[in-house]
Write a structure and sequence with these properties.
It is built from 13 helices and 2 strands; from the N terminus they run ααααβαααβαααααα. Strands 1-2 form a two-stranded antiparallel ribbon. With about 200 residues, it is mostly helical. It has helices at about 5-15, 20-30, 35-45, 60-65, 70-75, 75-80, 85-90, 100-110, 115-130, 140-150, 155-170, 180-190, 190-195, and strands spanning about 65, 100.
Length: about 200
């Protein structure tokens, strides 16, 4: 039996989750190796094995979606993150936080150690921009503080912090932070990058 037959035979018995082409495409548009892509699929499937097929065919990697409640409850990498629901909303194509396999692959790729800083900053901005108006205003900052500090701050405390952040970071004086202004603050924050890392 030549080695080719042997390989071919083992492949024949193996349940292939993705075609070679799919894996190559995912490698091209994420910061993951093939092995990591398959690991993400395994994690994703473990959340709702009743919903997610072992083999992703007929566009199921986009059409099958796990409800946001299941993800924030059962994905250990997100469970402790105060922004978990917001993160799901930003990465979900439906905008509601329900994630397809490709959504969760994007999410975990951006949060991986291999993702460059500017991509992390870009998504951090989207996550903080709760009302999606391309600026981070006082209300966005208030939403972020409520999530970050849970109930530890009074509205007055939050107001003071918001005013201080805007005063220090709002270069053009319009009372809110543009992407450039946000980027300037966040890249100087020493604890920004560690909070944007998820190991899979």
């Amino acid at each position: 039996m030549n080695p080719y037959d042997y390989n071919h035979h083992t492949m024949g018995n193996k349940l292939v989750t993705f075609t070679e082409q799919q894996l190559e495409n995912y490698q091209d548009c994420t910061f993951f190796t093939r092995k990591e892509i398959l690991r993400v699929h395994k994690k994703y499937r473990e959340i709702r094995p009743d919903l997610v097929p072992k083999c992703m065919r007929q566009n199921e990697q986009v059409t099958v979606r796990i409800p946001v409640e299941d993800i924030i409850e059962k994905l250990p990498e997100l469970r402790e993150n105060p922004f978990k629901k917001r993160i799901c909303e930003v990465f979900s194509r439906d905008g509601k936080g329900n994630l397809s396999f490709e959504d969760i692959l994007d999410l975990l790729s951006v949060f991986s150690e291999q993702a460059p800083r500017d991509i992390k900053v870009f998504y951090a901005f989207k996550i903080y921009d709760f009302d999606n108006d391309q600026h981070i205003g006082p209300e966005d900052l208030d939403n972020a503080l409520v999530l970050l500090m849970r109930q530890e701050l009074t509205p007055e405390d939050r107001q003071q912090i918001i005013e201080k952040v805007i005063e220090e970071a709002d270069v053009d004086g319009d009372g809110k932070l543009s992407y450039m202004e946000f980027e300037h603050v966040i890249t100087r924050a020493p604890d920004f990058l560690p909070t944007f890392h998820i190991r899979i």
